[in-house]
Amino acid sequence: MGNDFQTFTTSSDNAAILAVADGIKSVDPHHLMTVELNYFESGSLDSPAWASRVGLDAAYSYPTVFSRELQEHNRSSVPVFLVEGNYEFENNTGNDQGTPEVLRRQLWWTTTSGSDGQIYGNLYSVRFLSGWQSNLDTPGAAQQHLATTFLNQFRWYDLVPDQNHTLVTAGFGNCAKSPVEHTSNCATSALTADGTLGLVYAPTNATLTINMAKFAGPVTGTWFDPSNGATSAAGVLAANGVQSLTTPGNDADSNTDWVLLLQANAGAPTATPTSVTPTNTAMPTATLTHCRPVSRCQ
After folding, report:
1. Where are the alpha helices (DSSP H) in 76-163?
2. Which residues neighbour 46 within 8 Å (Cβ) at sequence distance 6 or greater?
């Protein structure tokens, strides 16, 4: 519902859309409903009237998405997802070009900041510009697929955002909210409650100080290149003290963003991470199969 609903603060306008929502729910109470409110940043719960109606909280953010995702994660009783951010090939704010790097930042920041998913946008397909048919398997779209394939090897949906920097205790950069995404160096991280799985996204070269005591046992570290799906070993680490890990340098796109996967060999079973091979196959239909915490699942 909504879609850049700028006037939701006008009571008569909000009442009209709420009436449509209530009409739908009166005959179909089972399907998920959400509302997209104000650009350039909002969440569905910015309007208290929608709180009892939405089954998905839509975070809308052109500024650094981790700040809005964390805000919605902390206040929402329903799953949160990024409904809209920067589109590939587009620049709506004058701040960030819609490059694959910017889209990777959005994707991995949301993954490590309490989100249950995100929607990818492409200027060609959203407006059906001339040449849209040849701009479907674009680099940004392909890298979304790489991320999905990689994450589905693990219990990503159990990750809890490391909001107080107790997992990555140093080297996480400046995580203040910013209207500009492509210059932020904020490394976001998340960890499962049982200490068996951790994930860190570093958008720029950094030496990350990891609190190994947060893990349930010795940890196998793996670097994942989000630009081409390749993996490389980051070492086997004891579950005590701290460890400093430095990002491997440039990725395959000549940028400096990396994902660090940390798996403890105790507790819940873990998967052996494998490299992901880029393909030209069509993107699968998105399906919300998990929500976190589990108490949010209805």
Report:
1. 100-111, 123-127, 139-151
2. 8, 37, 38
Contact of 113 with 69, CB cutoff 8 Å: yes
Helices vs. strands in the chain: H and E counts, helices first: 5, 12
Q: Where are the domains of the chain?
A: 62-279+289-296
Closest listed residue to residue 14, CA positions, set 35, 43, 32:
35
Q: Output phi, psi for 86, to 5 deg.
A: -70, 140
Q: What are phi and psi of 51, to 5 degrees?
A: -55, -40
Whether the CB-CB separation of 54 and 34 falls below 8 Å is answered with yes
- Fold exhibited by the domain 62-279+289-296: TIM Barrel (3.20.20)
**Per-residue pLDDT at 295:** 39
- Residue 203: band (very low, low, confident or very high) from pLDDT cuts 50, 70, 90: very high
How far apart, in whole angstroms, are the C-alpha atoms of residue 27 and residue 50? 18
Which residue stretches of the chain are H helix? 11-27, 65-75, 100-111, 123-127, 139-151
Distances 140 to 99, 150, 204 between C-alpha atoms, Å: 7, 16, 18
Q: Are 39 and 3 in contact (CB under 8 A)?
A: no
- The whole-angstrom separation of Cα 81 and Cα 35 is 11
Question: What does the pLDDT look like over 144-181, one tens digit per residue?
Answer: 999 999 999 999 999 999 999 999 999 999 999 999 99
C-alpha span between 142 and 157 (Å, rounded): 22
**Does the pLDDT at position 61 exceed 60?**
yes
Whole-structure pTM value: 0.89
H helix intervals, 8-157:
11-27, 65-75, 100-111, 123-127, 139-151
